[in-house]
Amino acid sequence: EVPAIVAGDLNAESLQEVTAVAGAVCGLRDLDVHPLLFASNEVPSPVTSQTMRRKSRIDYVVFSDNGLLERVDDEKAPPPLEEEACIPDATHPSDHLPVIGSFKFADKAARALFCAQRVVRDCLGATAPRPLLCGEVALAFEALGGRGAAETARNAYKNGLCAEGDVDKLREAIDVPRDAERPHLFLHHAHKAALERSAGVDEAARLAFRFFDRDDDGFVARGELFKTLKTILPADVFSEAAVDRIFAAVDRDHDGKISPEEFSQALRHAAGERERRDAVSRRDRRGRLGSAF
Known about the structure:
about 290 residues, about 45% helix
């Protein structure tokens, strides 16, 4: 539950593709990873490497997109290169331009409102849901509160998190059984349902599927899954038996190939399970801490 910033030359022109593929591999293999993989943003920048052979944006400053940090606009970033420029040159000693970002820590109230907005938008289907981790559900409840689904939905409207016309839709989406001892968990259950019912193939799944679909025929065969996972996973994690288990679980209609819809559905299920484990582990940790006093 601390902010994270990763900076450097990632040697990739699409950060979205990198995170999508990494997220898909970890989801399919059920590996625990840092939440930055699922909740990240980047400092915008122009082309960062411009030589005689390439003109690319391959350098990034990536930061946690979970409300812990707020990016501050500044004027320290270098101006874009001229169209005909080729670096390094007399002005630029490196063949990479710097990417500069300034941040400030968000206070708890601002982060709670950020988490509540994400829950509301995901439950309404306004965004492609991602797992809620690191206490985001509990913080969202702090901002929304409510003794029932109707009051919680009205609070969302009062806080400017949804339109008045969406109040009834939100109430229906979060109208799930509540636990008197852990009142915030109803938001987790409602959000997990939103993850599961998210329709279609979202952008992250589409990018990852394209990476796995090596022959570009619109499906992922067992051999393609094997080669991709063998290339990416460390030797102590990869195994042929694991590939067989993953393929059997994702190929739901057992036709010997994975469709984009099956791939996306598997990733949505993995995201829901990741969120469930996070919520349960936090509940158990609170219980252990409480019993120690």
